[in-house]
Design goal:
The complex is a heterodimer of chains A (396) and B (313). By secondary structure, chain A is an alpha/beta fold. Chain A is 41% helix and 18% strand. Chain A folds into 2 domains: 3-247, Rossmann fold (3-Layer(aba) Sandwich), CATH 3.40.50.970; 254-388, 3-Layer(aba) Sandwich (Rossmann fold). Chain A is built from 12 helices and 16 strands. Chain A has a 7-stranded mixed β-sheet, sandwiched between helices. In chain A, strands 10-12-11-14-15-16 form a 6-stranded mixed β-sheet, sandwiched between helices. In chain A, strands 1-8 form a two-stranded antiparallel sheet. Chain B is an alpha/beta fold and 313 residues long. Chain B is 37% helix and 15% strand. Chain B is built from 12 helices and 10 strands. An 8-stranded mixed β-sheet of chain B has the order 2-1-3-4-8-7-9-10, sandwiched between helices. A two-stranded antiparallel sheet of chain B has the order 5-6. Chain B starts with a helix and ends with a helix. The chains are: A alpha/beta (396), B alpha/beta (313). The interface between A and B is large, with 44 and 49 residues. Strand 9 of chain A pairs parallel with strand 2 of chain B, so a sheet runs across the interface.
C-alpha cells in the first residue's frame, strides 16, 4: 500500500527516481531542482538505490553523459531547471534525434536576464520543439506520478523518445504538500525492466550511433523521429489508464475541470491550475459556469482532443507563464487558437501572461480573467487580446 | 609488442570506405591505436567528437567502424564517454556483462584544447576509465582551417590569415599537456604517427590504466597545412626532429622523454614544406621564425629540465 507523505515537489521527484532506480543519473545542481540530485546522492549513499551517479561539471555534460549512458544501454534519468536546461539545449535535440528514452525532471524556472531563480515556464516552453515529450504537473502528486509514467512512455518501442516531467519551480518544487507515495515494489513492477534496442556495450554486435545524415537522409530521419513523438499521444493515454489501475489515480492527455457545461474557460498548465480550480468552484457556487482545461501533455500537443473539449464553450482565456517574445501570444495561446481554427462557431480566445519570475498569481487575478470572459460574452467584443496578470501598471 | 606480420592479421576496428582526404593521418593514428589494443583481453568502445574524422567515418547509412562507436556533438566526447563508462560499471555491478571493455574518446584540437576542454577536465577529475586521444591538426580543419588555441605561432589560417599588416597567428600554441597534467592523472603521452612503435606502446600503456589517460597526437593535415598528400608522415617526423612535437610521457607527474634527436633540426625544416608558413620566409619576417624557434627551444629545455629533476607527484 502507498502511504501519505508531506514532502516537497523536489522530494516527490527524488523519490520517484529512487523507486525507478535508473541505471545512470548524470546531473548538475541548479536552483530550484538541486534537491533532486542531492536526494539521489543521499539515497545512493544510504544504499537505497544502486544507480551510477555521474556528478558532471555542467548541464551540457549532464545531458551529454545521459546520451552516452542511454546509448550504452540502460535506463537514464536527470533533473534540471532554467539556465541548466538552456545549456543542455544542443544535446536535447541529439537525445531525441538519436531516439534515446532519457527521462528528465524539470523544476521549471525563469531564464536570465535579469537573473531570477523563481518559477515560470520560460525553460520548457523555449525547449518545446526539441523533440521531447513534455508532461506538466499541477502539484507534487502529479510530479511524482508523471515521472513514473514518463519512463514507460519514453521507453515504449513505438515511441523511443526522451520525456520530461515539468513542475513549477518553488510553487511545487519547494512547497510541502501531502501526496501519496506508492510502494517501492509496486513502482518497480509498474516501470518494469528496460530492454535497450542497440546497446553500445553489446560489443559482439558493434553498432554506430550518431552517424551524420546529409540531405538525402536527414529529412527521413527527422520524420521517423516525429512519428515516434506523435505515437506518444496514445501511449500517454494508455499508460495513464494503466497507472490508474495500478495506483487508483488515472491520467489522460488533459484534465477537463467542470468543462461539461462551461461557458467561460481558462486553459492553463502547472500549479496555477490549483488556484484556478478554487476560483471555478467559488464561481460555480454563484451560478457562473466557469471551467478549466488543464494541459497535461504539451508535446506532442493533442490539438484535436483539446479543440473538442473547447468547442462548446463561449469564451476562452489561455494563461501562459512565459513572455510571448514577439509572437501573437504565448506558446499555449497560439497552439490553442490554432487548434480551434477548424471548429465551427469558434469562441473568442484571449491570452494572459502571468507569474513570470515567480510573480504571485492569486484568486483575485484568476477572478479578473473570468470577469473579462463574461464581459466578452456579454458585449460580444474583445478589448484586449493580450494582457498581463498582476503586472505593475497596465499593459498596452 | 606483437610482430608486424601478426598485427597485419589482426581484425581491424576501423575499416575501409571512409571519406578522409588522401594523406590524412586520422585513420593512420586510429589504426595504430587499435592495433596496439590488446583486443584478446578486452573490447573497445569509442566516442568521437564532431570533426573531420567523425564526418568521414560515420556517414549514414554507412559506417567505417567495426567496433561500437558513438558520435554525440563537438564539445562533449569526454562527457559522452563518461556516461558510457558509468553504464558499463552498472552492467558489471549487476552482472549484465562479463566482458572487459575499455573506452576511448577521440577528438581533434578544436574539440580538446578549446570547446571540449571543460567536459574533458570534468571527466578526468571524476576518474572515469578512458583514454582520450586528441588528434592535433593545429586548427579547426573540418570547417576549413580556422585557428584554434593549438595553432602554432605564425601559422596562417582562415581566421588568422597572413595579410599586409598581420602575419598569421600572433599567439603561441597552448600547452595542453601542462593544462591536463594539473589533474594529476596517472598517464599522459605525446606521440606521432611517424614513430608508430612509440605511439602504439603509449596507447597500450594508457589502455591498461584503470582511470583517465590522455594522448596528444600530431595529425598532419595536407589540406589545412598545405603539403603534398604523400608527405604526411615526413611532416610528422620533422615536427619530432625539430622538437616542435617532442615525444614524451608524463607518468605520475614524472616527465620521460622518449626521443631526443641527435641532430635537433631548426624549425625552418618543419615550416618550409608547408604553405601555412610560406609568408614567414618572406623578406622582413625573419624575426618571426626566430621568435618561433625561441618558443620551441624554451619548451624543449623546460621539458629536459623537468625530466632531469625526476620530480613527480
Amino acid at each position: 500500500m502507498g502511504k501519505k507523505v508531506a514532502l516537497t515537489g523536489n522530494e516527490a521527484a527524488a523519490h520517484a527516481i529512487r523507486q525507478i532506480n535508473p541505471d545512470v543519473v548524470a546531473a548538475f545542481p541548479i536552483t530550484p531542482s538541486t534537491p533532486i540530485p542531492q536526494g539521489v546522492a543521499q539515497f545512493i549513499a544510504d544504499g537505497q538505490m544502486d544507480t551510477e551517479f555521474v556528478t558532471v561539471e555542467s548541464e551540457h555534460s549532464a545531458m551529454s553523459a545521459c546520451v552516452g549512458a542511454s546509448a550504452a544501454g540502460g535506463r537514464v534519468m536527470t533533473a534540471t531547471s532554467a539556465n541548466g536546461y538552456a545549456l543542455m539545449w544542443e544535446i536535447l535535440y541529439i537525445a531525441s534525434g538519436t531516439r534515446l528514452p532519457i527521462v528528465m525532471a524539470v523544476a521549471a524556472r525563469a531564464l536570465s536576464a535579469p537573473l531570477n531563480i523563481h518559477g515560470d515556464h520560460s525553460d520548457i516552453m523555449g525547449g518545446r520543439d526539441t523533440g521531447w515529450i513534455q508532461l506538466i504537473a499541477e502539484n507534487s502528486q502529479e510530479t511524482y506520478d508523471n515521472l513514473i509514467q514518463a519512463v514507460k512512455i519514453a521507453e515504449n518501442k513505438k515511441v523511443m523518445t526522451p520525456a520530461l516531467g515539468a513542475f513549477d519551480g518553488f510553487n511545487i518544487s519547494h512547497a510541502i504538500e501531502i501526496w501519496e507515495m506508492e510502494d517501492d515494489a509496486k513502482v518497480k513492477e509498474f516501470v518494469g525492466e528496460y530492454e535497450p534496442l542497440y546497446p553500445l556495450l553489446k560489443t559482439d554486435e558493434p553498432i554506430t550511433h550518431g552517424a551524420w545524415a546529409p540531405p538525402n537522409w536527414y529529412f527521413e530521419n527527422r520524420m521517423n523521429q516525429l512519428e515516434g513523438l506523435l505515437n506518444a499521444k496514445d501511449v500517454v493515454a494508455d499508460v495513464g489508464k494503466e497507472f490508474g489501475k495500478a495506483f487508483g489515480r488515472e491520467y489522460g492527455l488533459y484534465e477537463a475541470y467542470k468543462m461539461d457545461d462551461a461557458e467561460f474557460t481558462i486553459v492553463a498548465a502547472g500549479s496555477v491550475c490549483g488556484t484556478t480550480k478554487d476560483v471555478v468552484d467559488k464561481l460555480r457556487e454563484n451560478g457562473v459556469k466557469a471551467g478549466l482545461l488543464k494541459i497535461r501533455l504539451f508535446r506532442p500537443f493533442p490539438y484535436k482532443e483539446l479543440a473538442d473539449v473547447l468547442s462548446g464553450t463561449k469564451a476562452i482565456a489561455v494563461l501562459d507563464r512565459v513572455s510571448p517574445a514577439g509572437a501573437q501570444g504565448g506558446p499555449l495561446f497560439t497552439e490553442i487558437r490554432s487548434a480551434l481554427y477548424d471548429v465551427n462557431n469558434r469562441p473568442p480566445v484571449i491570452n494572459y501572461t502571468y507569474g513570470l519570475g515567480g510573480r504571485d498569481t492569486q484568486p483575485v487575478h484568476i477572478n479578473s480573467v473570468y470577469d473579462t470572459l463574461k464581459k466578452i460574452v456579454d458585449t460580444g467584443r474583445v478589448e484586449k487580446q493580450f494582457d498581463c496578470l498582476n503586472l505593475r501598471g497596465t499593459w498596452g | 609488442m606483437a610482430l608486424l606480420n601478426e598485427l597485419a592479421k589482426k581484425k581491424e576496428g576501423l575499416v575501409e570506405g571512409h571519406r578522409l582526404c588522401p594523406g590524412c593521418t586520422h585513420s593512420v593514428i586510429m589504426r595504430q591505436v587499435l592495433a596496439a589494443a590488446d583486443t584478446d583481453k578486452y573490447d573497445i568502445v569509442v566516442a568521437a567528437a564532431t570533426g573531420c574524422f567523425e564526418v568521414s567515418s560515420g556517414l549514414y547509412p554507412y559506417t567505417s567502424w567495426n567496433i561500437p562507436w558513438i558520435h554525440n556533438a563537438f564539445e562533449n566526447a569526454a562527457s559522452t564517454i563518461s556516461g558510457i563508462e558509468a553504464m558499463y560499471r552498472l552492467w558489471k555491478k549487476k552482472g549484465r556483462t562479463d566482458k572487459d571493455i575499455r573506452f576511448i574518446a577521440i577528438a581533434s584540437d578544436g574539440g580538446t584544447y578549446d570547446i571540449g576542454l571543460q567536459a574533458l577536465s570534468g571527466a578526468i577529475e571524476r576518474g572515469h576509465q578512458f583514454l582520450y586521444i586528441c588528434n592535433d591538426n593545429n586548427a579547426y580543419q573540418n570547417t576549413g582551417n580556422q585557428r584554434s588555441s593549438a595553432t602554432p605561432f605564425g601559422a596562417s589560417t582562415t581566421t588568422s590569415p597572413n595579410g599586409t599588416v598581420l602575419q598569421g597567428k600572433s599567439q603561441p600554441k597552448k600547452d595542453i599537456m601542462s593544462v591536463l597534467e594539473g589533474h594529476h592523472m596517472q598517464y599522459l603521452a605525446q606521440a606521432s604517427p611517424s614513430n608508430w612503435r612509440d605511439l602504439m606502446d603509449k596507447a597500450k600503456t594508457a589502455l591498461d590504466v584503470n582511470g583517465p589517460t590522455y594522448m596528444n597526437v600530431i595529425e598532419p593535415c595536407t589540406t589545412g597545412w598545405g603539403f603534398p598528400s604523400n608527405k604526411s608522415i615526413e611532416i610528422a617526423q620533422l615536427a619530432v626532429d625539430t622538437c616542435i612535437w617532442p615525444l614524451y610521457e608524463i607518468i605520475e607527474g614524472k616527465v620521460k622523454i622518449n626521443y631526443k634527436p641527435k641532430n635537433k633540426l631548426p624549425v625552418e625544416e618543419f615550416l618550409k614544406p608547408q604553405k601555412r608558413f610560406a609568408h614567414l620566409f618572406k623578406k622582413g619576417n625573419e624575426h618571426l621564425i626566430k621568435e618561433y624557434q625561441g618558443q620551441v627551444d624554451k619548451h624543449w629545455e623546460w621539458l629536459l629540465a623537468r625530466e632531469a629533476s625526476g620530480i613527480g607527484y
